[in-house]
Amino acid sequence: MNWPYPRIVAHRGGGALAPENTLGAIRLGASMGFKGVEFDVMLAGDGTPVIIHDETVDRTTNGKGSVPAMTYAELSALTIQEKEKIPTYEEAARLCLALGLWANVEIKPAKGHELATGDAVARMTRELWKDAPIAPLLSSFSPVALAAAQEAAPELPRGGLCDTLPEGWRSILKQLGCTAVHCNYQSLNGKLAAEIHEAGYGILVWTVNDPAEARRLVAVGADCLVTDALDRIGPDFK
Ligand code: G3P
Ligand code: MG
Q: Which residue from 10, 177, 196, 213 puts its CA 20 to 30 A from 206's CA?
């Protein structure tokens, strides 16, 4: 697969240098020259897609509670490291568009909400990015969420997220109409990279923070590195 996306992508917006999955993080990534960001999208209890990684707000905000049990109004009252808020997906998307950033949008459903999350994120992505030159790449660890995204907006590219590639990965990716594999960087070697490319898929690896390891991954054929170490693995890393 020809990789039409940036080669280095800032994880959760600004990697380790900003509060994760916030508008400030996305701004920081862009200000450091990154051309692409990854972030996680989950549905609030009222169905609003928001940018957050965990199923609870406990780790990243000053509040406590389960994301799918809270309305967006409740989530938006919380603060992240005293300076940020939980953004909506729409806010994050509009900021990316304003900054000219490409996005790897990870569909991160709360348990039991896989289908609804894949469906909502795909529909909103189609609408928000309709005039953008390059559509985001939707990815998920959940095959149910990816199938729902495929059903709702088949034209949007999809990446199959995994730690290590499962048995039968070729047929799983084919069934979900994926164009890329998004695997843990530790599971990628030259033989596997060649097999993935031979099968016609691009390769994104996460989350690579050591420049020596990043060089190994580029050498074995990774098309895209997602990193937290924005200061050590910059946008022009080769
Ligand atoms: O999408 C790549 C990476 O973000 C997957 O892991 O847990 O950081 O969302 P996680
Ligand atoms: Mg993620």
A: 177
